[in-house]
Write a structure and sequence with these properties.
Blueprint (H helix, E strand, L loop, with lengths): L8 H7 L1 E6 L2 E6 L10 H13 L6 E6 L11 H4 L9 H6 L1 H17 L7 E6 L2 E3 L1 H7 L3 E5 L3 E3 L14 H8 L1 H10 L3 E2 H7 L4 E3 L4 H13 L3 H15 L4 H25 L1
Parallel strand pairs: 2-3, 3-4, 4-6, 5-7, 6-9
Antiparallel strand pairs: 1-2, 7-8
Length: 270
C-alpha cells in the first residue's frame, strides 16, 4: 500500500519522523512519543528534505503526531546547553554570529514553509499538545483537523524568544492581530472549543474520530482536478496577503484562462 521513497531513512530516523506515501497522499508522522514528539533541528532537516523530494504525483500531505500529542515543541534540552546528539543548541546559533545564525534559522524555517506551497494540500491532524514549534507546524498547513483534547500554545515569548518558524503570519491571518497578540504574549493554552470558534481549527472531533475525519477531508480535497486546487489555493493566499481588488481580479481571470486552456486540452484528448 505504501510506496517506497528515496528519502534517506537514517535522516528521517534522526529527525524522529516517519513518512508513508500512498498514491497521491503522503503522511508525515512525528515519531518521538516518549518526549511528546519534541522537535530538534534534525526534525526540521527531515521535514525540509521531504518537501524537496516528494514526487509531483503527491497532491496531499497529512502531518500528524504519534502517541499522546501532536508535538510539545522544541526539545527542552536545546535550552539547557545539554548536547542532543550533536544538534546545534540555541547558544550555538548565537556563537555563529548574525549572518550565519540567520542562515541557519532560514534553513530551519524551510522545514515548515514548503507546507504552504499551493502545489499540495496540507492537513494537520492535531491532538493533545501543539506547543511552540508544534503549534507553528500545525499553522503551516492549509487545514487543521483537531481532536477535542487539543491544546494549542505559543510558548516562545515566555522563554524570552519569538516564534520564528513561520507561525506569526498564518496565525494573524486566521484569528486577527489582537487575538494573535493575546495568544503569543500570554502563552495561554487554547483548547478545542475556542480553537474552532476563532478559526484556528477547521473541525473538532472526538479523539477516536480524528483519523476518520482527516480521511474524509483528504478524499474531498483530492476529488477536484489538481490544477483547479493549486490555482484556487494560490488565489486565496494572494487575497490573504492583501492584494488589491484589481490585483485579485486580474489574478482570478488569469488563473481561469489557464484552467480553461487545460480543460479544452483534456477534452480534445478525449
Amino acid at each position: 500500500m505504501s510506496a517506497p521513497t528515496a528519502i534517506d531513512a537514517d535522516l528521517l530516523e534522526r529527525g524522529g519522523v516517519r513518512l508513508v506515501v500512498d498514491g497521491a497522499r503522503a503522511t508525515i508522522t512525528l515519531d518521538r512519543p516518549d518526549v511528546l514528539n519534541a522537535q530538534t533541528p534534525s526534525t526540521w532537516v527531515a521535514l525540509r528534505t521531504i518537501g524537496e523530494q516528494l514526487g509531483p504525483d503527491v497532491r496531499l500531505v497529512v502531518v500528524r503526531g504519534s502517541g499522546r500529542a501532536f508535538s510539545a515543541g522544541l526539545d527542552r534540552r536545546m535550552f539547557t546547553g545539554e548536547p542532543v546528539d550533536g544538534e546545534p543548541g540555541l547558544a550555538e546559533i548565537t556563537r555563529r554570529g548574525p549572518e550565519e545564525g540567520a542562515a541557519l534559522i532560514a534553513e530551519f524555517q524551510r522545514g515548515f514553509s514548503w507546507l504552504r506551497d499551493p502545489s499540495r494540500v496540507t492537513i494537520a491532524a492535531v491532538h493533545g499538545h501543539a506547543i511552540g514549534a508544534g503549534f507553528q507546524l500545525a499553522l503551516a498547513c492549509d487545514f487543521r483537523v483537531a481532536a477535542d483534547d487539543v491544546q494549542f500554545c505559543m510558548a516562545e515569548t515566555g522563554l524570552g524568544l519569538v516564534p520564528d518558524l513561520g507561525g506569526t503570519q498564518p496565525l494573524v491571518r486566521l484569528v486577527g492581530y489582537s487575538r494573535a497578540a493575546d495568544i503569543c504574549l500570554t502563552g495561554r493554552r487554547v483548547g478545542a472549543e475556542e480553537a474552532h470558534r476563532i478559526g484556528l481549527a477547521n473541525t473538532v472531533v472526538a479523539r477516536e474520530d480524528l483519523d476518520e475525519a482527516v480521511n474524509t477531508l483528504a478524499a474531498a480535497v483530492l476529488r477536484p482536478l489538481p490544477g483547479a486546487v493549486t490555482e484556487t489555493l494560490a488565489l486565496l493566499a494572494s487575497a490573504a496577503d492583501g492584494a488589491t481588488e484589481e490585483e485579485q481580479l486580474t489574478a482570478e481571470r488569469t488563473a481561469q484562462l489557464r484552467r480553461l486552456a487545460e480543460l479544452a486540452a483534456l477534452t480534445g484528448r478525449r
